[in-house]
Design a protein that fits this description.
The protein has 242 residues and is an alpha/beta fold. The chain is 24% helix and 30% strand. The strands form 4 sheets. The chain has a 7-stranded mixed beta sheet. It has a two-stranded antiparallel ribbon with strand order 2-3.
Length: 242
């Protein structure tokens, strides 16, 4: 277990309503959705501890009280957990302006990601790059289950592709930042990560990509959730090594 990252603060964005997983998320916040015998967020917190992280802030909103009751101060997991509640929706970057103590390199994650990525490896890569921000990315193939037609400006068909595949490098919902990124986030104003990243690039800041080839699943939709649950139960030690 690494101790090098004891000064790295982690922020988990746990305030969303998880509408794509309704009706389950009408009574339970998405980070508390069970994967095997524990909530997805607990898996992530255990992975953070293994990476040497000790301080975690949960930014909350929807069903905030249930998250607080479950994780309390984090002592059960060997962590120090505090909470910052959003009084109004602030997007995926806006809540960071309200988190105290982000004076060193810090990790930011969505609260609903199942991955076997080693957070310590991601943090080390970020620090080697000398970037203000590093985005963990994953290659994802998207199949269009329709015939795709290309046309020119005169509506003349130039190509026809039957159910083509497109490959994209997508964000995993895991980021590492330097404290000066907070200079680009106005307090109590709505801001999403894509807008933050674009503003960093426009200002000439270095933003790096850490391309991860291991397991990653976003739990946004019911089929993703069911697949992730089955994968975790089948290969638990892959995600939570002893």
């Amino acid at each position: 277990m690494s101790s090098k990252n004891a000064q790295v603060h982690a922020v988990v964005l746990a305030g969303g309503k998880g509408t794509r997983l309704a009706p389950y998320t009408r009574i339970i916040p998405k980070p508390l959705m069970p994967i095997g015998d524990m909530p997805i967020l607990e898996i992530m917190l255990r992975q953070m501890k293994r990476a040497g992280i000790r301080q975690v802030t949960l930014t909350t909103g929807y069903l905030d009280n249930l998250l607080r009751l479950f994780f309390l101060d984090g002592r059960r997991l060997g962590l120090k957990i505090d909470y910052v509640r959003e009084e109004k929706p602030l997007g995926t970057s806006g809540p960071l302006a309200n988190v105290k103590g982000l004076t060193r390199t810090f990790l930011v994650t969505n609260g609903d990601v199942l991955t076997d990525l080693d957070f310590a490896e991601l943090i080390a890569y970020h620090q080697q790059q000398g970037a203000i921000a590093t985005i963990a990315t994953h290659k994802r193939k998207v199949t269009i289950n329709l015939g795709v037609v290309d046309v020119d400006k005169d509506n003349t068909v130039t190509d026809y592709l039957e159910k083509p595949d497109f490959n994209y490098l997508v964000s995993m919902g895991l980021y590492v930042f330097e404290p000066r990124v907070l200079n680009y986030i106005a307090k109590d104003e709505y801001l999403d990560f894509p807008d933050l990243v674009r503003s960093l690039i426009a200002a000439g800041e270095k933003v790096s990509s850490f391309t991860f080839k291991g397991y990653w699943e976003d739990l946004g939709r019911p089929d993703d959730y069911e697949r992730a649950s089955a994968d975790f139960e089948r290969n638990r030690s892959q995600f939570l090594p002893e």
